[in-house]
Each structure stands twice: as structure tokens, then as C-alpha cells.
Amino acid sequence: MVKDKKKSVKFDLPSKTTTSRTMDEELESDEDFLPDNENIISASEDEDASGDERKHTKLLEAISSLGGKRRKKLAERSEASLQVSEFAVNAEGAGEKVVLSDLLSSATEASRTDGSLTKTQKQLKNLEKLHATLELPLSHQQTEKIQREAAFQKASKEVSRWESTIILQQRAEQLVFPLNQQPNRPRRMEQVVTSWKTQTPLEQEVFAVLHAHRQPTLDPVLTPVEEAQLQAMSLEEAQLRRAELQKARALQSYYESKAKRERKIKSKKYHKVQQKAKRKAFLKQFEEMCKSDPERAMEELQKMEKNRIEERMSLKHQNSGKWAKSKAIMAKYDLGARQDMQEQLELNRQLTHKPLPSTELHGDSDHDDDNNDPTLTNDDQTLPDIANDASANQKEGANPWMKMTAVMPTAMEAEPKSIVVTTDSEPTEVAASGGGEGDAETEETEEERLLGEFARRRQLRKTNEEEEEVDEEARQKDEETSQAAGGPSISFTIAETSEEEEEEEDQMDEAAASELNALFGRLAKQGQQDAAPLATVGVASMDTLLDEDTTRVRTLEETELLTETHSDTAPMVESEAVAASGHGNKHAPKVKRRQKIIDLEQVLTKQAKSIRVPMTAPAVEDAEDEALDEQTDVIREAFAGDDVVSDFLKEKRKQEEASKPKDVDLTLPGWGQWGGLGVPVKKHKRRRFLKKAPPSVPRKDRKLPAVIISEKRDSSVAAHQVSQLPFPFENPGQFERSIRSPLGSTWNPELAVRKLTAPRIVTKAGAIIQPLSKDDVMSSKKTPGKRGAPDLLLANVEQGKAGHRPTAKRKKHKK
Amino acid sequence: MKVKVLSRNPDDYVRETTRDIHRVPRNYDPTLHPFEVPREYTRALNATKLERVFAKPFVGSLDGHRDGINCMAKHSKSLSILLSGACDGEVKLWNLPKRECFRTVQAHEGFVRGIVTRFCGTSFFTVGDDKTIKQWKMEPPGYGEQEEPLNTILGKAVFTGIDHHQIGETFATCGQTVDIWDEQRTSPIRSFSWGVDSFSCVRYNPVETELLASCASDRSVVLYDMREATPLKKVIMKLRSNTLCWNPMEAYYFTSSNEDYNLYTYDMRYLDNPVTVHMDHVSAVLDVDYSPTGREFVSASFDKSVRIFPKDGGHSREVYHTKRMQHVICVRWSADNKYILSGSDEMNIRMWKANASEKLGVLTPREKTTRDYNQKLREKFQHHPHIRRIARHRHLPHDIYKQRREQREMRDARRRKELNVRKHSKPGSVPVETEKEKHVVTVVE
């Protein structure tokens, strides 16, 4: 209702006022000019139609004049300004107030049509409708609580600024109190100067000039330019440089003259040796390069390859030249000519030899040798053929696939041929060895062949140079060295078998194990059995079973050789196998290892081929309950891959070894004689001061194969030993290291001792230590900055610019 | 042809002056100096033993008071002056090097509750049981002058403690409220109260100088900011704290001495748990003061002993006691980090060395190096049982020893009981409470 009324008021207001006003005026005029009106009417009285109208109006006037009230009202005068404001806002009466929405009426007609305006009007009205009261202020307690909380937050934030300082102090190696000691010695000139600020324009000008020349104010009195000049002119440096240049020049001339001299030497042998050395050096270099700089090595390799191809294209060293032909004629009668030709061929072979990839190199090298052997021995019979033969063979050798096919027959034939060859080429040796029976002879020849093979392999491993030797000489040498080579090869096997020995002993332990440890023992055994066939196949992954020579097992003989060595690893299995197969073998299971090793014949005889068996029977089935088996299976599954048992046994053996008392050498260096580096202690002295170890006390765990009882603890020393790892250390190693490094001046030089023994806190006698203050810390934080910008002018400029410095700087000052 | 001759450079063996020490060429080849660890171990052992032999911390006592000493204050500018207030209202100023009293002031009637020197060192303030705060000149009055205070402020209630701002001209007192005073005015410029009827101690933070902390009788420690109208926070503990002391080097740490025989170091930002609980006393701890380096603090206890704790160590590194020393009421660490002063019930002030085995006086360089080396050796081998046992051995009076054992038994019994309760109740219903958590009741914001 109210709203409607107001609305109507609002919209009608102007119009109403106007109408009322016009009415008033009209009325007034009516009153004033009534006679005039009558005159007018009378003038138009003539017409009839108009006469009616006049009557009607007259009547109306009469009626209107009846109400005296109006007349009275008309006489009233009103103050227009009260109701009509200059903003066209008006309340209805003098008592009414202007409402908020009234204000909007002053807006123009155009804006009134806008949607936004009406929207705000609506909002305003809604606001007016709301009659919510203000909330009561919070209770005193609560406001205080909020204030407290805010204050606390502020304080704790403020205090937290010290965190970095505190942490720094806590971590400091050394703290000297009082913290901000002013050095009481006189300050240096530069320090005084830097704190001085320019003031007058003249001073500023002077400093500007100085700054332009970058005149430093601190220690160095020279400008950078001057310094650079000085550096450039440094006499010692120049002298050094000159001396270096002189030396280089001299070295160059020496080298040149040497080269000239060498070029003039006519001796072929000299050049040959020289070249050989060069090649050797190059090879070495190349190997190193392979490791260090593979890219360059690759380039070199390509270069070599190119050389090889060129060599293959050319007819050089192919015994097709004039010289070769003449030699070929002579060859039949002249051993030297034959050798020369051979040399040529060898050279050719080397130069055209394609280097195999490293993986194949080892595997195939022996085949190569096998290959070469018969062919080379054939050389003796027919020379011209050989040349082609050799080259052809060589080509095959280059191709591993082709070689494979070539190898097989040769290998098969190897035996008889080799016999023939040996008898042919070395009649003296054969005569020496051939005195025995037929059986022995064959054995021997076989042995020889094998040894030769060993030796050749070994040789191959060394370098190519030995390949260069002509075959006959090489063979002779081979045969000779092979006899000697038995030594190292044997020692090798010893080294190899020492580990195996251990394992065997482990097994012996197992045999002695009680029922409780049956599981362990069986597991271990099975592990061994698993390992054995693997080894024979040659896929074994365990390092103990890995074979040192990398021959591929292709021929029977080779497998025999392998198994011969591997049979040592599983003697138990072997013995069982032997028993099963019913072989009346020489190999008793308990034969001493040493004997086996030294007795070459035993190693190499054919009888020792009983090792195929373990491949067929991998496990020894015991008549045990299946539950146990299951358990072992489970355990084995859990520990698949890592051989826990053998590791444990090894560990135990190691501990046993370690716990055995050892002889103590009490000789002191330099006691009673001269001491020092390289001066050996005399033998009789050593013997005198060598304290023999007492016989070892039997270990507590000697009958418990699955237990290690440490007997290290010595109660008399325990008082001096740390039982627990102390706090700041993370592992025993760390702690031990800290203990091991000595601090004293007996072991460390003076300065190091001073540094090592520096106390953590140093206080000055008689000085009051003030609590940390803001000024100290902030000033100390600022000082490095100052040191960074020691330039006078900069400071000056800063001062000048202080007006428009960025806020960050000002903040710093505030702090 | 080159001729080789033996040649020696005199610089290598000739001294520059006759007062110089002889040059000893040394060969550091380890083979020539074997057994470095055992040798150093022996040295460390000897050093530890000697340290114990020379551990004679008692320097002297200052007697002259006619009643128990209730409060002490260090002079802020001079190391040689100590102020002490006794229970009979007497204040004495002591010359420490001479160990004599050079001035006596009858400052109050009844106890002198608190005493503090102004930061400039020219005057000092005392509060007493007669409800007055008095400011005194440091210099004794001239000939014929009366001993009179510079200013006297009469308060409405008894003041129990006083502390002065580090650099400003304001000081704080505590009694029924904690009041902040301007030196120039006779009425406090601010007074804080938070539903407590009395406070026992108020201390300014020496680093963040606008902060204060106080111990209240409602077992709480309350923090204030001088600039704020309200206190900041308070932590209520199981038993009442007697005094507290801010760490002078680490702005947000303070340590409070508690009635429950322990001391608690708090980080003022995290009052929920103390950072460290320092236990070893066998009776209420009455006073605590930090060393000026902020690394250690000293505590005085009702059990007639003074203990020194590392600031982050749970147990004391040193305990001082004498036969005649009674309940120690107040303790201060001298500003040069060398001495500890303890005032006790039996009217004596005692002076102790902060480092028991330290040699007093000037040390020669060789003595210094030996001291440093021995110190490092002891540190290096401190975990070895033999050395540790020697280094940690202390003689205790029979009473303390007995009580210690007793308390240990009690603690064990309590722990055992708790374990048993936990064992026989529903899992999780008896939570494990760490030592730090045990002593805080609540934090009020």
C-alpha cells in the first residue's frame, strides 16, 4: 500500500503540481476576468448551439462557486522551495522524509528506461525491507583471547627471525665470545677512507674522475689497467716463455737430426725391429685409446681397415712378383728362400687379416690355429700350392661360418696328421720320444698335441708378434716351451682348484653334520649337484664354476678336457656316477687333490671321461619324508638365485681362519739397527722377535655346521672398548675412523694440530659477554655487502640517489 | 761434471733469536710413530684422570649478610661487582676479586625480594616486602651524605620480583600483577593480569627486548609483549615454576626451574611441550641462570646443591656442593663465563669456577695448547667405558645420594606400574606418554 502510494506520488508529482498550478491560475483568472469572460460569452451569445454550452459552463461555475472552501484555499500562499528542490526531489509534505528511492528520480528519462537502474532500485527497496539489528559486540574474554592470539602470532613471527642466526651459531666450529669484538688496533687507511662521504661539488668531481679510472680504495693501490700492464710485463713470465720456446725448438731439431740419421741406416733388420716396435707401440696405444677415446679408436680402426682392403687389392706380398718367382724356383733347394717366401705370405696374411670382434676372437682363435697347423705343416711338402692354400684358408678363417665347416674335418683328422707331422718335421725329437712302446707313443703324441694347443692358446693371448714367427721355428719353440708351460698351467689349475677344494671340505662338513642340520646339508648338496651339470654344459653362472679358458665346447676332446677340470668340482657326484656305471676307474673319490694336479697324465688321459653321468642324474633321491622335501623346496624357492648355504659355510670357514691365533712379529723398525723405508729387518732379528702362536683352542661351534659362535670378545679389553655406537655416529665405520685419526702433534704438523684441537668456545678473559643484540647481527649481515662495494663513488652515488632507491634497500635499513 | 756435496741451510736449524724455542725437525712418517690410537687413548685417560684430580671448583665465599640471601644481581658493566639482597632487607655490594663488601644498604623492611642493575650500571633497583620499589645509586654516598634512594615508588601490593629492560628506560615488576614501569613515572605504564593472584618471577628477554615471561602461582608460565595490551600465552604445568631465565644467545628459548625437581627448557613459539626436561635435582629447583654464552645454565636447588646443565642435555654435567652450604636460593653465572655465584640460606655467597678443573690466571701458550689437546682427547674418547666412568664420577653428599636412589626407585616403580596397567588394559586405552608430555597440563591462549 505504502509503496503504491509512494509510487503514484512519485510519478504523478510533477504532473500534479503542474495541473494544480494551472488550475489555480485558471481559477484566479476566472475570478479576475469574470466580467471579461461574460463579455466574451455575451459576444458569442448570438449562436444557439454556443448558448447551451455557455449555460453549462455557467452552471459549473455556479457549482464551483458554491464551495467557499476552495476560495479560501486559493488565497493560501505556499513556500515552493520547501517542496520543490533544485534536484527535483521532493517529499510530499513538509513532515515527510526523503526516501532513498526518491533520489533516483533525479536520473534522466533515458537512464530510467535502463534495466540496471531498475535493478538497483529493486535492491534498494529490498534493503529497506530488511529490519535486522546489529550483532552484539563479543564478550570481553573472547576479544581478549583473540587479541592475545594475534599478539602471540606476531611475537612468535618476530622471534623466528633469529632462527638462522641460532642455527649458524649451533653449527659453528668455533665461537669467540664476546661476539662483536671491535679490534682495538688503529683502523687502516682504506677503512677510514671508505666511511668518508664526499660533500662539496669539487670533491664529487674529483671522485668522479677517480671512478672513471677505477681507482681502487682498498688494498691494491694500482688500477686494474695498471695491474694488467704489470702482468703483461712480468719479467719472469716472459723469461719462462722464452725458455720454453727455446727448448721446444731445440727438441725439434734434435728429433729431425735423429730421424735423418735413422733413415740413413741400411740394415734391414734394424728397420724391421724398428717397425715391429712401432707397431707394438701403436697397438698398445690403440688399446688404450679404445678405453679412453673410443671415437678416435674407431677412426683408427677404419684407417686400418682401409689399409687392409688396399693390401688385398694390390699384388704385394702375394709371391707373384719377379723376386718371388725367382725365389720359388730356388725354394726347392734353398731353405732360406723358402723361409723368405713364407715370410712374405705371413706378412700378407697379417696385413689382410680381418680383426674379429672380441667375442669371436677368443672362441675361434684355437680353430684358427687348428686350421693353420696342418696347412702350415703341409707347406714343407709342396710349396707353390701352399701359397694359395694358405690364402684360401685365411679367407675362410676370416669368415667364421665357413671356418666352422672347415674345422670339423680337420679336427677329426688332427690326430693322425699331427703324428705324421711331428715325425716328419722333427725327426730328432721323435727319435728321442719314439723309443717307447706304441701305446705310450700315441699317448705321448696326443699329450704333445694337447700341450702344443695349450701353449698356442697362451701365445695367442699374448700378442701377434709371436704369430709372425715362421711355423717351423715356432713349432719347435712351441714344443720346447710347452714342456715348460706345464709349470704355469699347473699352477693355474692349483689356483682354480683351491676354491673347489674349499667346497669339497664344506661337503665333508656336511657329512659330519648332525641330524638337525640335515636340511641344510641336503640343500647345500643339491646346490652342488645343480651346479655340476650346469658346469658341464658350460652355462654356469657361478664364479667358482666359471672356466678360465674360453673355449667353446664343440668337439668331444674339448668336452673331455672341460669335464676333466670340472670333475674336480663335484667329486662326490663323480664317484657315485663311477659306481653306477661300474667303471673300474683309477679315480678313487678320495684321491688327494695335489696328486691329481701334479699328475699330468692323470689329468689328460682318456680314462677320465666318466663325467657324462651327472648330466643325466641331477639329483640324488633320498628316502626321506616328503614334508621335509617340500620344506626344502620352499626354502630353495625363497633363496633361489643366491646360494645362501655355501655363502654361510664360506663365511664360517673365514671366521675360523681368522680366529686361529697367529704368530706375532714384535720386531720394531730401527731398533738396534738402521731403520727407514727400504731397509729390511734382518732375518735373525725377525726370528728372535717372532712370537709363536699358541695352539688354537677348539671352537665352540666346531660341531655345529649351521652356527657361527664368535669368540672374539676379550673381557680384559672390554673395559677399553665401546660397546654401543655413540649417538652422533651413524655406523661403526664412521666411529672407528674418528678414533683412528690422531690429534696430537706427534702425528700431525703444527698447524693441523692447532686446527684439530681448536676449542669450540673461546672466551676472552675479563670481557663481559653481552647477550645477542639485533644491531650486532644485522650489522654483521650488512658488512659483507659493504665489503663488496668498497668504491667511494658508489657510496656517494647511493647517497645521492637515496631519494629514488628501490624499496628493498629501504627495508634493509629499517631492519 | 756435477759434484754432489752435503749442504745444509742454516735457516733450517738456526733460531732467529736466542729466546726462540729450538727447532726440532720432525718426521711424520706413520711407521716411525706407531700405535697412535693406544697412545692417544692413554693420553686421554691421563687427561681425564688429571681433570678429575684438579677439579676443585670452589673459589671462595663472601660472608657478611646477617640473614639468608634472597636475591643477587650481576653488575651490567663491571665484572668485579656483585649485588645481593638478604632476607632482612639488607643489600650488599661486593668486590669479587677482593672478596669483600664495599657497601651495605638497608634497603627494605622485610625481605629484599628482587634486585636488578640498570643497563648503564650507574644505579640499581630493589623491591621488597614493604611494597616499595627503590632506585639506588651505584656509588656509595659521599662523606656526610645520607644513604638514600634516588627514587622510591610505593606500590599497592608486595612486589616479588623485578627486571630491567636491556636498553630502554623501563623495568618490570611482578607481584599481584606484572607491571611495566617507566623510570620517570610513579605509576605503571602497563599492568598485566590473567586471572592469577600472584607472580613469583618476571624476566625480560635479553635478545627480543620487548618480550617478557613470568612464573605465576597458578603453576603457569606466562609470556608478555610489552607493546601489547594483553599477555600472549601461558602454559600450565603440573607443579609451580619458581623462576625462569631466557637464553641470552637464542632468542626463543627459556628455561624454568620447577618445584617438581626438574628444569624445563621451552621454545616460546611451541609451548605445548618443553624442548628438554633437565632432571637430576632431588628437591625443588629455586633459581636458574644462563651462562652468557648460552650453552649452559646453572641451577640452584633446595637440595643444597648447584648443578650445571648443558642447554640441550637432560642431565647435569656438574654438581657443586659443600658441607656447609644449605638450601641454595639464588644463583648467577658471571658475565665473563668463568664463575658461578650462589647465595644460600646460611648467609653466604659462594663463588665457584664454571669449569671445575680450569686453571685460573694467565696461561702460557704451551699450557693453552695442552689444555686444548687434552680437552679434545677427552672429547674423542668420551665414549670409552673406562674414560667415561672416570669422567662422570662425582662425589655426592649422603643425603642427596640416598634421595637420588630413592627417587629412582620410585620412578621405576611408577613406570613399572604404568607398563603393567597398559599390559592389562585394552590396547590403545593407556597411551604412552613421553617424559616431555608428562609435565604440561595445558596451554591457554
Automatic annotation (TrEMBL), chain A:
Transmembrane segments: none annotated. Residues 1-54, 355-515, 773-815 are annotated as: Disordered. Residues 373-385 have a biased composition (Low complexity). Keywords: Nucleus, Phosphoprotein. GO terms for biological process: rRNA processing. InterPro entries: SSU_processome_Utp14 (IPR006709). Residues 802-815 have a biased composition (Basic residues). Belongs to the UTP14 family. This is U3 small nucleolar RNA-associated protein 14. It comes from Alosa alosa.
From TrEMBL, chain B:
GO terms for cellular component: Cul4-RING E3 ubiquitin ligase complex; small-subunit processome. The keyword rRNA processing applies. Keywords: Nucleus, Repeat, Ribonucleoprotein, Ribosome biogenesis, rRNA processing, Ubl conjugation pathway, WD repeat. Residues 354-440 form the Sof1-like protein domain. Pathway: Protein modification; protein ubiquitination. GO terms for molecular function: ubiquitin-like ligase-substrate adaptor activity. Its main location: nucleus. Signal peptide: none annotated. InterPro entries: Sof1, WD40/YVTN_repeat-like_dom_sf, WD40_repeat_CS, WD40_repeat_dom_sf, WD40_rpt, WD_repeat_DCAF13/WDSOF1. The keyword Nucleus applies. Belongs to the WD repeat DCAF13/WDSOF1 family. WD repeats lie at residues 62-104, 278-309, 321-362. It holds the Pfam family Sof1. It is found in: Nucleus, Nucleolus. This is DDB1- and CUL4-associated factor 13. GO terms for biological process: female gamete generation; maturation of SSU-rRNA from tricistronic rRNA transcript (SSU-rRNA, 5.8S rRNA, LSU-rRNA).
